[in-house]
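Reposting from the mailing list since nobody answered there.

I have sequence plus structure tokens for a pair of proteins and want to know whether others read the tokens the same way I do. The first protein:
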Amino acid sequence: MLWEISGKGLDQSSYLFGTAHGGPFIAATYILDSIPCFEEAFLSVTRFVGEDHFSSYPDIVQMNSTYDELLSKKEISVLDSVLLKYLHATSDNVKIKPSFLTRVIGEKIKYQLVQERMSAKLINKKYLDPADFDEFVFISEEPMDITLLKRAVKKGYDIIGLDNRINFQFDTTNDSLTLKQQAEQMISIFENNQLNDLIRARLELPLIDSLKDAYYEQDLDLIEHISVKLYTDSLNYGNIERELLFERNFKWMEHIPSIIHEQPSFIAVGVRHLPGENGLIDLLRKEGFIVEPL
């Protein structure tokens, strides 16, 4: 998962690290101590480069309207029941756009469902695997990327978000829908636990569990194999998968060389951005850098 970048006139090495985020990963930080040279690499740089430094989020997700203006009393009742359960808040205190709020609630539901699966896995085993127990102990709603970002901030590192450099934003809003339409769509998803069912179905895909296992085994070849299956499967949103992976890789590479020439950097992005002919490892090598695993 950890690669050293050198050569092509670099005064000091930079590092490329594949993080675990999304899917079933709610405890992946527990393996950081088992990655050779991780701390040494992280402490040797002066800059942290992630996918996003989140400074633009308020402008993207906040709205001026209130939910009382967008929804009926019956719909507000549905929304409040969901907000109280997952955010311990009510709609009169929430100013997040409906489409992004759906995503936030979805992450909370995913955390709960994965936690339940982990608990069941431990209860049903006659003999506990220490790795299973470690994973359960390290359950956290905070993604690995945020954990690393916080470490970098504490160290006083310069922080760069690659998506900010390329003006990329996840499609958290549908520009063709008004806020009222977004809110009504959100309520229809919340009703009858539709969102829970969608997330549960996604988590139960065999490839998703295989991806998690491959990460814990630090098997980048297997991760690439699984990734190919995901982005070539139209049922798993293959076109979107390719855009999120490769289009961003190509655009990130317009900035990464200059970033690592300016300062020794620790680049931490989702692990699926690393392997393959369009992955960052090969793209950096094509630019003339030496990229070697640690």
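The second protein, same order (residues first, tokens after):
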Amino acid sequence: MSADGFLTITDRKKDIIKNSNGKYIAPAAVEGQFKAVCPFVSNVLVIGADRNFCTALLALDEPTILGWAAENGLEGKSYADVVAAPQTREMIEGYVARVNEGLQRWQAIKQFRLLPRDLDVEHGDLTPSLKLKRPVVEREFQSLIDDMYAGSREA
């Protein structure tokens, strides 16, 4: 409810996640904020259901990140090499910090992983209308998700 008494719907009910502390998070809202702030990201998947903090899988836009790479000492590298480079991670960390400034503590992205490829329809990650298939992406990149939660009480 807003201050003036209006109800605001922020996401589909089935996509709302509840963390282990009982807080509800609309991942699409967080993902949208990230896309608005970071010009290099193409797809974001916020994870946090039944976990004690939120994490994110980030797929970068290949032409945009390769352009950035050419200007930052990574010219001629493949997409996978650019994504794995420490400079890329450091640059994306700045955008994560900016997004987190506008979020509640329980919504903040504590850890993230850059995906080795962009998400697409051909791999089954997106629907033909380019909507993210959350369960498919989570299954495919389960090892990255497990790595982000390693050592936490939900791991």
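Reply #1 (J.P.):
I read it the same way you do. The mean pLDDT is 88.
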